[in-house]
Automatic annotation (TrEMBL):
Residues 176-319 form the 3-dehydroquinate synthase C-terminal domain. It comes from Aquimarina atlantica. The keyword Metal-binding applies. GO terms for molecular function: 3-dehydroquinate synthase activity; metal ion binding; nucleotide binding. This is 3-dehydroquinate synthase. Its EC number is 4.2.3.4. One of its GO terms (biological process) is chorismate biosynthetic process. It holds the Pfam family DHQS_C.
Length: 356
C-alpha cells in the first residue's frame, strides 16, 4: 500500500513499515533508542518488532502497566526519570509500541523530555491504527478528564502492521471499529455503507479498511492541523462519549467502558440531537443506531447519573467561552461543528438511547 504523507510525518503499511524503519534508523544515527511498551505489548508485540530491526542499536525498553487509568502525569514523571537515568539525550529516539494509551502518553513524553526528542508510533490496537497514532495529538488525562494535558506534534513516522492485531481481544477490535464508523459518518457515506455490514467483511478486508480510514483522517488533519475548524469534525461522538467514558472510569462500581464503547454511545446520542437541530432524518438515525448496536451492546446508564455525566461536559477541552460545542450530522457523510445544544435536548438524548 502506498504510504500516506501528512505535513510532518509518513504512515507506512505492512512490510514496508520495516524497510522504512531500518532506513530511518541507519540514517538518523540516534545516540540511544527507548521502546515504550505496556505489559501486554511487551509480551505479545515486542519480539516481532525486535526481529524486524536489522542492525544492532543501543536499545532500552520501558514497560508500564496497561490501561487508561495509567495515562496520567504520575506515569509520565516515572518515565521521564527513567529516561534520565538511562542517559537518554536530545539525540535519542522513542518508539511507542502499543495502543492509544501508549501512543498518546509516549508521544507527550517524547515532546516534553529535554524539550523534545524524536519519536515513532507503532500502533498495536485497531483504535490506535485508525485514530490515536495519526494526526499528532499527544497527551494524558487529568484525573477523570480525558486528554486535558498535551501537545500537537507529529511523530517521525507511523508504522501500521496488522500482524500486531492477532492477539487483540474482540472488545478491543470493536473499540477501534467505532472510530472507523465515525470517519464514515462525518466524511464518506460510501465508506460508512461499506463497513456498516460486518457480515459482508472478512479479515482480508481489514488492511484496506484501515488504510481508507487513515486516508479520511489524514485528509481532515492536513487541512487543519491545530483544530481551528474542520478538524473538529473528528470529535463527532466524543463530546458526550468522553463524558460518559470519564464518568465510568472513576466509578469502580460501574462497568469499565473502552474508549470506542463510550464513543459508540456518544455517536447514537449525538445523532439523535442532530435530528432535532439539523437535517439528519429519523430514518438515518434508526440506521445509525441499528448499525452501532449490532456491534456495541447497549449499556444501561442509570437515569440518576445523567446529570452527573452532563456536569463533566463543561470540562471538555473543545469548549470555548463557557459554551459546550458539539459536532452534529446534517446527513450521513456530512457534519457541522460548533453546534450549541441545550441541556434539555442533551437529557432527551439520554432518554432516546435508553429507549433502544
Amino acid at each position: 500500500m502506498k504510504p500516506i504523507v501528512s505535513k510532518d510525518s509518513v504512515v507506512y503499511f505492512g512490510e514496508e513499515c520495516y524497510t522504512a524503519l531500518n532506513a530511518y534508523l541507519e540514517k538518523a544515527n540516534h545516540s540511544k533508542i527507548c521502546i515504550l511498551v505496556d505489559d501486554n505489548t511487551h509480551e505479545h508485540c515486542l519480539s516481532l518488532l525486535m526481529s524486524k530491526i536489522e542492525k544492532e542499536y543501543d536499545i532500552e525498553v520501558i514497560e508500564i502497566e496497561s490501561g487508561e487509568i495509567h495515562k496520567n502525569i504520575e506515569t509520565c514523571s516515572g518515565i521521564w526519570n527513567a529516561l534520565s537515568e538511562l542517559g537518554m539525550d536530545r539525540k535519542s529516539l522513542m518508539i511507542n509500541l502499543g495502543g492509544g494509551v501508549i501512543t498518546d502518553l509516549g508521544g507527550f513524553i517524547a515532546c516534553t523530555y529535554k524539550r523534545g526528542i524524536n519519536y515513532i508510533n507503532i500502533p498495536t490496537s485497531l483504535l490506535a491504527m485508525v485514530d490515536a497514532s495519526v494526526g499528532g495529538k499527544t497527551g494524558v488525562d487529568l484525573g477523570n478528564l480525558k486528554n486535558m494535558v498535551g501537545v500537537i506534534s507529529e511523530s517521525e513516522m507511523v508504522l501500521i502492521d496488522t500482524e500486531y492485531l492477532a492477539t487483540l481481544p474482540v472488545n478491543q477490535m470493536c473499540s477501534g471499529f467505532a472510530e472507523m464508523l465515525k470517519h464514515g459518518l462525518i466524511q464518506d457515506r460510501g465508506y460508512w455503507e461499506k463497513i456498516s455490514d460486518l457480515s459482508q467483511l472478512n479479515f482480508e478486508d481489514l488492511d484496506q479498511m484501515i488504510y481508507d480510514s487513515v486516508v479520511i483522517k489524514n485528509k481532515i488533519v492536513s487541512k487543519d492541523p491545530t483544530e481551528q475548524n474542520v478538524r473538529k469534525y473528528l470529535n463527532y461522538g466524543h463530546t458526550l462519549g468522553h463524558a460518559i467514558e470519564s464518568f465510568y472510569l472513576t466509578h469502580p462500581e460501574k462497568p469499565t467502558l473502552l474508549h470506542g464503547e463510550a464513543i459508540a454511545i456518544g455517536m447514537i446520542m449525538e445523532a439523535y440531537i442532530a435530528t432535532e437541530l439539523l437535517s439528519l432524518t429519523k430514518e438515518e438515525l434508526e440506521h445509525i443506531s441499528a448499525v452501532i448496536l449490532a456491534t456495541f451492546p447497549k449499556i444501561d446508564i442509570d437515569a440518576e447519573d445523567y446529570q452527573k455525566i452532563m456536569e463533566l461536559l463543561i470540562h471538555d477541552k473543545k469548549n470555548e467561552n463557557g459554551n459546550v460545542y458539539f459536532v452534529l450530522l446534517n446527513t450521513i457523510g456530512e457534519a457541522k461543528y460548533n453546534c450549541i445544544v441545550s441541556d434539555e435536548l442533551i437529557l432527551t438524548s439520554f432518554e432516546y438511547y435508553a429507549s433502544l
